[in-house]
Amino acid sequence: MDERDDDLDRMIFAIPMEEPPAGLRASILRGTIYRPAFALKPWELWMCGTVAAIAVWLAAFIVRSGPEAFMQTLIALGSATAHLLLIQNTWLWIAAGIGTAFWLLILNPLPMRAPLFRRYARD
Amino acid sequence: MAAAVLDLPRLTLRAAPDADHRLVLEALRGDSDAFAALVQRYDRAVYHLAYRTMRDEEEAKDVAQEAFFKAYRSLRTFKPGAKFSTWIFAITYHACCDRLNRRRRFSNEELPERADPSRGPADAVIAGDEARRLREAILKLPEKYRTVVTLYHLQGKQYDEIATVLGIPVGTVKTHLFRAKEQLRRMLAADYSGEMT
């Protein structure tokens, strides 16, 4: 390192950092730790979205096809579901699914996520 | 003279990686005050890096906010062995790159080579003429050199940390820094000779 380099380094390090605009820190904190917590969890949002989508689909179906066609479809769907539940294999698959989910929870192959930030409003 | 370089005024953020690590862990446990402390420690440096890269106060402010929002959302991905300063500077630099790319894509005009340095926010605090000249010269540097010099200013001679922030090899950092310093010396010399005549 030569002397010229040392001088330039000294000059570079001597420059003060830019002064951030007033309110920058406050706006960062407002957007992070002081941000009000969202009331719904992600899975609850998904659930609401799915229920809303099914409701819209049913409403559109009734309006376009009339109540008789809707009832017929509903009965057909109901009888198909009942028929499925009478088959032994259906129950076997349901049991296998519940068993797999249970063992996955017990063995816990995925690391537990750290708790989300406790975002709370402050005065 | 080498001793003088070692005694350079160090920025406070460089001295406390352990404290940063502790604050990150506390923030991850849900302590919002710990994250506030990280903001307090780094907001100025982040803004400084953003301003030097973007050369625009408003955009630098937006980038600084964006960087902290992103850091807050993805604090869980922060690796325990890493330095918080390197991590937050990398987020800031990438946010700057995204904005610069967008600016280039949507602007038909040639970008200004530099902003008017006389209107910079640090003017009020820069008392020395030497510092003002150097600051103006840094703002005139091409983007890649300007960013390297700014990170050199923020992180000291930790070339590997600068390389991590920029995502380039350490050798390239050293080359960029060498060329940046050469250009700075030329600009400062021309400035001085221009004043003499």
Question: Can I get a quick summary?
Answer:
The complex is a heterodimer of chains A (123) and B (197). Chain A is mostly helical and 123 residues long.
Account of the 3D structure:
The complex is a heterodimer of chains A (123) and B (197). Chain A is mainly α. Chain A has helices spanning 3-14, 24-31, 42-86, 88-107. The two termini of chain A are 53 Å apart. Chain B folds into two domains: 15-112, RNA polymerase sigma factor, region 2, helix turn helix motif (Rna Polymerase Sigma Factor, Chain: A, Orthogonal Bundle); 120-197, Arc Repressor Mutant, subunit A (Orthogonal Bundle), CATH 1.10.10. Chain B has helices at residues 2-6, 17-28, 32-54, 57-73, 84-106, 129-140, 143-155, 159-166, 170-196. In chain B, helix 6 (129-140) crosses helix 9, helix 7 packs across helix 8 and helix 7 (143-155) packs across helix 9 (170-196). Chain B is globular and about 60 Å long. Residues 1-13, 109-119 and 122-127 of chain B have low confidence and may be disordered. The A-B interface holds A 1, 3-21, 24-25, 27-29, 31-34, 113-120 and B 1-2, 4-5, 8-11, 27-30, 32, 35-36, 39-40, 43-45, 47-48, 51-52, 57, 60-61, 64-65, 68-69, 72, 76, 120-122, 124-126, 128, 130-131, 134-135, 138, 149, 152-154, 156, 181, 184-185.
